[in-house]
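hey m, so remember when u said the tokens were messed up on ur end? i reran from scratch. heres the input so u can diff it against urs
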Amino acid sequence: MPEEIPQQIQDQIARLQQLRSQLQMIVQQRQQVEIRLRELEHAIEEVEKLKENGEIYKSIGSLLVRVDDKNKLLNDLKEDKETYELRKSTLEKQEERLRERLTELQNKLENAIKSTQQAQGA
């Protein structure tokens, strides 16, 4: 008859599941930031290609509003891009730390389970 799982191991399993959920959330956020970065890069390229007297519209909610100052729009887009690049870098660091903590906890959990199994088998 199998023994009950020790509380310490149950706690580690719960922590492992919590870390996996956090990692999944960080990965999703990073992916969303990467999508927004690609959109911004494409927008910057298109605005830069546009002739000086070309018309530009930007989306504000569900409205399209004409932009009169191309350079200001370009600067705004580039600032947004820098902000998203910083956010992406931060998320990548968080993701890396979480992955390291997950690996460490998985190893501890495996060792604890092996120890428990050996103690039960003795």
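this time it looks ok to me. Helices lie at 7-49, 70-121. if urs says something different then somethings off w ur setup not the seq
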